[in-house]
Specification:
Elements lengths: L1 H5 L10 H10 L16 H11 L1 H10 L6 H11 L1 H25 L8 H15 L24 H8 L3 H25 L15 H6 L11 H13 L5 H12 L1 H8 L3 H62 L8 H9 L7
Length: 350
Amino acid sequence: MACDCLGPRGDDKSGVRDSWLAYCFMEEKTSTMTSFRENRFNNTFQGAANLHFHRQDIQDCLGNYLPNRNKKVEVVLADCQSELTDCHIIALGLLYFRLTGPYWSLLGSRVHYLDFHMSVERMHAALRDWQQDASPLLRPDCQAVFPGIEFRHNADILTSLLDMDDTKKEGVKCVLKKVCAGMVVVTERQLADFLHNGRYHNVQDQDLRHKLSHSHITNLVAEECFADLDFSLFKRRSCSLFHHSTVNMMKRNKPNSSSYLRKSDQEQRELLKMSATKSAALREKHVLAEKNAIRRRERILQDNLQKKQAADVKRRQRVACFRSCLGDSLANICPRDRTKLLFADNPAEN
């Protein structure tokens, strides 16, 4: 909500972005508040870090310079003044610097798809340790989860997150344990293929490694893929899933696509010929997947219709039963009690 009020592309009606920027200009400070979007994986953690960094500034701006505050701004001010809420904000902000931020940089790196399991295992082990003891996250020298991955960040924001008294540290540790425990569950469910005994865990097949040499981990389903898909669907609503998948893969593999143009004419013709022989089977696979999705939706609609028809039959039978039992006295019952009798799950109890 704070990002919605103070960040760019926020709430134009209830937000105070203009006043916040004027305050930052007056105090000779730069706003780091970001826009909040629910479908962005890392947005919550990064927004929490920026919110704590500006916590005192927000209290001063909203509390002293904006006397006529609406309800939404009042909530933002109350959250910034709450020490308990600040513990949750610090915990999410620390996870941005220790885990989610570097993880997002990892997804944009050139790590091979079959080597991704090593990073997932390190992340899984770190989360399991942190759910037992979160104190390492509060140390300035916390060990990196993904060594070798460059993560650009604002050191001043991290310093503000680590600057707290012992009482608040205990609260932050408690929140971190809960959040890390939830992340362990999500990791084991969503990234099971890269954990022990998973499909892509420690694969030694060199032929498969060569085939997946162009499939870096940016091909994993992530925010960028969904964003590209949304835009592609908006621009080309009548195109097939095969077309949208092709566009998405080309966007995620621009270096490999550009390498095609650097090949000789003979190599380009051979690649196009090979692609043509395999494209028909791939297109049929996508068409079949679309048909199966439509069939599943049809089954859901049919099931909903059958449930509605069964409910209507049950209701008519109940009405007929009450009318035959009560006769004219049914009209003397107040409408509210009549509704309870007719639509109760177990009429005998009434």
